[in-house]
Amino acid sequence: MAQGILKDTMANAMLVKDLAEVAKDTALLHGVQIRVHESPNSSEVVTYAPITLFPSPVPKSAFYQALAVQVHYNTLVDKISQDADFLQKALASTITVDNFTARLFKIHQQVLEEGKAQSIVLGLNRSDYMLDQKNEGCPTLKQIEINTFAASFAGLTSHTPHVHRHILKVAGCVEESQRILDNNSAAGLAEAIAKAWELYGSKRAIVMFLVEENQINIFDQRCIENELWKRNISTKRKRFRDVSKTGSLDPDRKLFVDGQEVAVVYFRNGYMPQNYQKNANIFNDWQARLLMERSLAVKCPDIGTHLAGTKKVQQVLSQPGVLEKFFPEQPQVVEQIRSTFAGLYTLDMGPEGDKTIEMALRTPGLFVLKPQREGGGNNLYGAELQQVLQEVKGSEERMAYILMDKIHPTPVQNILLKRDAPLKISTCLCELGVFGTYVRKGREMVLNKCAGHLLRTKSSEHADGGVAAGVAVLDNPLLL
C-alpha cells in the first residue's frame, strides 16, 4: 500500500512537501521529539524525531511470529543471567581479549562471591529482527540481536501511530489508516518497573534513571517516567558522577543517592566503554557501577542480564544442544527460538575458528563481523570485515568478535524525514524490534510479557547504524 502511495506522489512534489510538513507538525504535537544541541555554547533545541513519511509494509505472519516468541526470549535471558557456569564458559575466550567485557565480568564475579543482596530481577529487553529474502519464497524472520541493556524508543514509538494514521487520512487513505496498530510500549515497560518497585516494598523509595551526561533522546525516557508518575512512583534522573559523589549503602545494603533510598536502578547509560569515565573523585564510574550492583536496589539490567546480552552469548546459543539445556523437554519452544536464528560462527582459536576465518575471507559479502558492543555503528561489512580479519586472523584478538550471516531484507520505497535533509524517495530497509518485560522474585516469575514493537527504517546505502547513530528513522508497520 505504501509503495502505491509513493508511486502516485512521486510526480507531485507539492503534495509530498505538504504531507511532510503535516507529518513533522503532527510528530511534534504528539511528542515524537528529540533534543538537539546546536553548539556547545547555544541553548538546546527541540525538533521532531526522524520518521518515515509513510508506514512500511510488514508481513502479518512474521510480525506475529516475533511477538509470540518474545516471552520465550524473556525466559531465556533470565535463565542465562542466573547460570554463572554457562556465562563463565561462554565468555571465557572473550574476556581474555576484550577489556570492557572483562571488567563487566569481574563485577559479576564480585557480586556472586559476596552474595546477591536482591532476589527481585527486572528485565526490559528488545529483540531485533530483519526479514531475510535470501531464498525464494516467503521472507523468514531472523534475529539480529537481543538488547538487554537500555532498549530504547519504547517511549517515542508509543506515539508514532498517531503520526502515520493522520498522514494516511490526509493522503486519502482512511481505510489503511485504521490498520496502524496501537503500540503503548512505554506503558508496558513502566508496568514492569512498577511491579519491581512494588515488590521492593518501600513507598518512599524512588526509581532512579541512570542517564548520560548529555541526552538527546530524553523524551523517549520521559514517556516512561510519566507513566510511572501516573502510578504515584517517584523518579529521579542521576548520572554516574552523582552516584560516585553521594551514593552509599547502609548496613542492609540499601542504596541511597542524594539521601534518597533507591528501589530500582534503571540503566539508560553504561553499555559502552566510553560511558565510564575515570575522574578525580574518590569513586570513578566503574566503582559506582559496582556499588549499585552490590546494593539491595533492583537493577535493570543486573550485571548477569547485561552479560547475557553479549554477542558471544548469542553465538554460543546457536550451537547444537545449548537451547535444549535451558528448555528441557520443551522442543516446541526450542524450535520457535531457533527458527529465528541466523547463522552464527565462532572466531575462537582452533580449527573451528580457523574455518570461520577462511569462509569469511573467501566470501566477505555474505557475512557481518560483530564486536561485543552496543549502540549501533559498530559492525563491519565487506572490505572492512576482510581487512580486520586479515589483521587478527593469527592472533587472539579475533576472539573479541563473532561472525554472523548477512541478512538480505526486501527493500521498500519510502521518504525519510530528517531535520535539514531534502525530501526524496529512498530505497529502504526495515528492522523490527519487539519489547519484552519480565519480573522474577526468587524462583517465581511474576510477570512475563511482550510489551510492544518498534519499526526502524534506513536507506539501503547504510550498512549499519540505528536512530541514535543518525542513520535509521522511526516507522510503523502496515501489516500485509
TrEMBL record:
PANTHER family documented for this protein: GLUTATHIONE SYNTHETASE
Residues where Mg(2+) binds: 145, 147, 374
Enzyme nomenclature, EC number: 6.3.2.3
Keyword Metal-binding: yes
Example of a GO cellular component annotation carried by this entry: cytosol
InterPro entries found in the cross-reference section: Glutathione_synthase, Glutathione_synthase_a-hlx, Glutathione_synthase_C_euk, Glutathione_synthase_N_euk, GSH-S_sub-bd_sf, GSH_synth_subst-bd, PreATP-grasp_dom_sf
Binding site for ATP: 145, 311, 370-379, 381, 404-407, 431, 458, 464
Pfam (any one): GSH_synthase
Note on cofactor: Binds 1 Mg(2+) ion per subunit.
Essential cofactor(s): Mg(2+)
Claim: Transmembrane is one of the keywords in the record: no
UniProt: substrate binding residues: 126, 221, 456
Taxonomic path: Eukaryota, Metazoa, Chordata, Craniata, Vertebrata
Protein name, as recorded: Glutathione synthetase
GO-annotated molecular function: ATP binding; glutathione binding; glutathione synthase activity; magnesium ion binding
Top-rank taxon, per record: Eukaryota
Sequence similarity: Belongs to the eukaryotic GSH synthase family.
All copies of domain Glutathione synthase substrate-binding, residue ranges: 205-308
